[in-house]
Write a structure and sequence with these properties.
With about 425 residues, the chain is of the alpha+beta class. It is about 30% helix and about 20% strand.
Length: about 425
Amino acid sequence: MTGVGLAGRNGPIDAVVCVPGSKSVANRALVCAALVPEGGVSTVEGVPDGDDCEAMMDALRICGAVDGSEVRGGRVPGGAARFHARLAGTTSRFLTAVGALSRTGVIIDGEAMLRGRPMADLHDALRALGATVESTEGPAGTLPARVTRAGLRGGTVTIRGDVSSQFVSALMLLGPCLEGGLNLHLEGELVSRPYVEMTARVMSDFGAVVTVDDAHISVPAGAYRPTRYTVEPDFSSAAFPLLSLAHGHGTVRVPSLASARLQGDSVVLELLGRMGISVREDGGDIVAHRPYGGPVRGVDVDLRDASDLVPALAVAACAASGVTRITGIGFIRGKESDRIADLVEGLRMLGAQATAHDDGISVTGGRVRSTGTLRTHHDHRLAMAFSMVAAGGHTVLLDDGDVVSKSWPGYFEAMKDVLGPVVVED
């Protein structure tokens, strides 16, 4: 673990920040490419170098499916392969579904924090489809787990929609490979619905047919087709430089972001406008601007469909007038950290009045201070969010800067014109 210190930026911001490709899009595209029938070769370009996608690429390398940006289809894992998903919830859940195609079995594992995250709903759904899923060390419904094809077949399965959209997406990705296809019935309200719609769009780009209704998802059997695919820039990552203008002033440009079409986190552009930060498109780029002394207003927003924006918006709210209320996000307690309690802890250290609620957070801003070391709780989004206050000239100390490698290993270098350079590493 490496601590990071930022002395804070002085003067106006004039920054061009190139964000990585969307890891959510990339991992979906990689799975689709790997499930193309044997002999088909796809090209997936723009895959980001964060830990989540590296874990997926490592698994595909074990299967012999990856050669540079080319992904060979039909390389179903065999020989009791072991996939290590690191800290990546999405990767572990997608690989669990892919592993259900293996006749010899696959072990899905990860770091200690991932072993504690819930998997039971996905395991139960795969069992209902005929696969064998067994937790090998911890309680049922946790990693590590051994997954085997056994009597895997298509059909109808019911799964809760209010726990994790990643379970739903994992099953959807498997659907075209099942004899008879897949029909999912969703119990309860579907959280993070844009991620399910993203899955459907990526699958359709690889030739699958998907129908998504309020309480039902249908995926007929049919082969994925080889595709040349380019991963779009990541709105979740772009939120950090853009919302940093709540603390600083000047201009931030994010190249090519306007062309991104799949991500629910694009709602950040609307939020910027509501907060008083102007946003415009310029030749495919997104350009945000806040003049010196420009007011920043708190907002009231339900982010159940864009929950990855919560840390960045909450830290931006520290500099806003009035109260910011973020609702619909109770489920983010089960992310890499308890993203409600741990975020509130950091917000209070930064000088904000922050309160945790059953389904969200409220933040009364208007005051920000330099503080002692902020705990990141092994959560990349908390580390990046807390760093944002450096855009306003405040000193920021993080207990773990390396954690950003999960989604954006080059974060601090890319953000130096927004936050200032890293001045302490120990």
